[in-house]
Design a protein that fits this description.
The chain contains seven helices and six strands. It has about 200 residues and is mostly helical. It has one domain: Transferase(Phosphotransferase) domain 1 (Transferase(Phosphotransferase), domain 1). The strands form three sheets. Strands 1-2 form a two-stranded antiparallel sheet. A hairpin with a 6-residue loop joins strand 1 and strand 2. The two termini are about 35 Å apart. It holds the Pfam family PK_Tyr_Ser-Thr. InterPro entries: Kinase-like_dom_sf, Prot_kinase_dom, Ser-Thr/Tyr_kinase_cat_dom, Ser/Thr_kinase_AS, Ser_Thr_protein_kinase. It comes from Prunus persica.
Length: about 200
């Protein structure tokens, strides 16, 4: 949450709430593979989806959504952070000269093509995979190898969530789900149904 800002030279800063849990990546790194309880996976995924749905409702593309840029509060709530390369959708254009993180980057960004909110949806799918596995995507690859693998490799999780992950990680942007209010409400229903099954 935004608290305050200072823009009086020479000090430029933004003050936000302190999130004592550190990054989601740090938390997942401390877990055994495939050990995060499904109920927690669902809670974290919904928090991330809510944050991204809000950004997209404001026509903002994050463009660097990954577990390192998701911060945890004491109550395990998630906040989206690091807006250093975010942009308004109308001003994003292509990814020429863009420096993001290949393991989470949508294929169209790697290829420096025009992109939309769907790049965040792709990254959200990778984060879902991380939540389910507690592993780093393409961990055994160099960044260049990961960039190639992004558009070639399908990441599987539990069968119940595999469809959702794939719907976010389709190579073709127009076939990815969107994080709009309707899709978000369907996600909530889907996830609640999953919880009731376990």
């Amino acid at each position: 949450m935004f608290v305050a800002a200072c823009k009086k030279p020479p000090v430029f800063c933004i003050i936000t709430e302190y999130l004592c849990g550190g990054s989601l990546r740090k938390y997942l790194h401390q877990q055994e593979p495939h050990s995060v309880p499904l109920s927690l996976v669902v809670k974290l995924a919904l928090d991330i989806a809510r944050g991204m749905q809000y950004l997209h409702s404001q026509s903002i593309l994050h463009r660097d959504l990954k577990s390192e840029n998701l911060l945890l509060g004491e109550d395990m709530s998630v906040k989206v952070a690091d807006f250093g390369i975010s942009c308004l959708e109308s001003q994003c254009g292509s990814a020429k000269g863009f420096t993001g993180t290949y393991r989470w980057m949508a294929p169209e960004m790697i290829k420096e093509k025009h992109h939309t909110k769907k790049v965040d949806v792709y990254s959200f799918g990778i984060v879902l995979w991380e939540l389910l596995t507690a592993l780093t995507p393409f961990d055994n690859m160099t960044p260049e190898q990961a960039a190639f693998a992004v558009s070639q490799k399908i990441m599987w999780g539990p069968a119940a969530l595999a469809i959702l992950i794939q719907a976010g990680n389709d190579i073709l942007p127009n076939r990815r789900i969107i994080l709009n209010p309707i899709a978000f409400s369907l996600l909530i229903r889907y996830v609640k149904a999953l919880i009731s099954m376990h």
